Here is the input.
Amino acid sequence: MQDFLILPSLLSADFARLGDEANAVIAAGADMLHLDVMDNHYVPNLTVGPLVCEALRKFGVTAPIDVHLMTKPVDSLIEEFAKAGASHITFHPEASEHVDRSLSLIHKYGLKAGLALNPATTLECLEYVWDKVDMVLIMSVNPGFGGQTFIPSALEKISALKEWIEMRHSSMRIAVDGGIKIENIRQVAEAGADMFVAGSAIFNHGDYAKVIADMRRQLAEVRR
Ligand code: DX5
Ligand code: ZN
Here is the structure.
């Protein structure tokens, strides 16, 4: 069984104080940072590029950074984020002309590679590349914005993916992104997820340590 990891999404942090916010959530008990990169083309919003990832590293942020590319195309940004200090890079298969090549490119830099599946995307895209995928990010909202409501069909997809992974004896991780809160994290974990991205639930709460501890208390109750 994989450990449960909590990844605050910096999308909901105070961008004017991003370095402090990143260090604060890690000090509050989070495992990794999740950096949402949006290009106003693949998704209808515009956020940050590799410069900001590099700035976080220069500021002294040492925690792993999971870069979630919601951009099209992806390959040039994979290279730039690898050089800027990313530890994981996840992209959407619809946004790459050559998914296998993009996954290999991430591994070429020694990073963990992830595929992000939109709510309407099936598991089929994993069939011939799964040995190159370290984690699958199940989107439980349509990508583009923080603070949206969890789409319940994600639970069924997570369970199906969990079964799919077990059949193949794979160590691939299941991450979930969108609408994760104290109230639903346990149910999502029971479906099979082991990495939880949460933006608004953490950053809109005054006490980061309390909300992360409450999430961990819920995870400690999980029956699998
Ligand atoms: C949505 C992003 C998410 C987002 C999650 O496109 O990929 O990472 O920040 O935010 P919450 O947890 O507020 O739904
Ligand atoms: Zn994300």
Notes: The first strand starts at residue 5 and ends at 8. Residues 9, 11-12, 34, 36, 68, 141, 143-144, 146-148, 177-180, 197-201 surround D-xylitol-5-phosphate (ligand 1) (CB under 6 Å).
